[in-house]
Design goal:
The protein is of the alpha+beta class. It contains 6 helices and 7 strands; from the N terminus they run H-E-H-H-E-E-E-E-H-E-H-E-H. A hairpin with a 5-residue loop joins strand 4 and strand 5 (104-113).
């Protein structure tokens, strides 16, 4: 994965298996050297995210405000409540974890940026010395007669598939997408250690 070799273990926690399984289809912005003011700017963003989340500790209010649960019937370590109508200043997704009582417990937010945004523009929004934006790339979707491949132990197609080039996708009659969705960034403001606030591990709980 481009940028992965530049990861600084002192700044970022390890990726969880869910994110790591998509490594062939994901680009992450490399960590930049820290600049004066970066830490303070990041703390301001986290405080704003935490304030925006306050209303949605009750997940029913998120549904009332137009958020929609992505794949609600699929068992997931983390559930995205999506609202594509939100502006860049508001969370595009609220990140919840199911509890033993089958309720949703809020643990974070996902912000998005314009898919054409440069890394310098992303850095202006949230310093890239602290946070890493990611986007999904090089995904081959299966032809209609091979959609069962998505559920295979070692799929060729989709976000977890082995195909990540146009040539290989065409050879398998798939539909290739060089880039999917947009720039994304997860923030977990309730983490007690600041380096975990921008964790790339969605498989562990980020609520305490």
């Amino acid at each position: 994965m481009p940028g992965m070799a530049m990861r600084d273990q002192g700044e970022m926690t390890d990726m969880g298996p869910s994110m790591a399984a998509m490594a062939g289809h994901m680009y992450m912005t490399p960590l930049r050297p820290k600049q004066p003011g970066d830490q303070e700017k990041a703390k301001t963003v986290v405080a704003e995210a935490k304030a925006a989340m306050e209303r949605y500790k009750d997940y029913r209010k998120a549904l009332l405000d137009g958020y929609v649960i992505a794949n609600p019937k699929l068992k997931q370590p983390q559930y995205h409540f999506m609202n594509q109508a939100n502006t860049p200043a508001k969370p595009t997704a609220l990140l919840y974890r199911r509890t033993p009582m089958l309720e949703y417990k809020l643990e974070g937010v996902m912000y998005t940026a314009n898919p054409d945004a440069s890394e310098d523009e992303l850095n202006q929004r949230i310093p890239l010395s602290i946070a890493r934006w990611h986007r999904h790339t090089n995904v081959c979707f299966a032809p209609e007669d091979r959609i069962n491949d998505y559920q295979a132990a070692h799929p060729k197609f989709g976000m977890f598939g082995s195909i990540n080039t146009q040539e290989a996708c065409t050879a398998e009659r798939g539909t290739f997408n060089a880039s999917l969705f947009t720039w994304m960034l997860h923030i977990f403001p309730y983490e007690t250690d600041f380096k975990d606030v921008f964790s790339m591990n969605d498989d562990v709980a980020h609520v305490h």
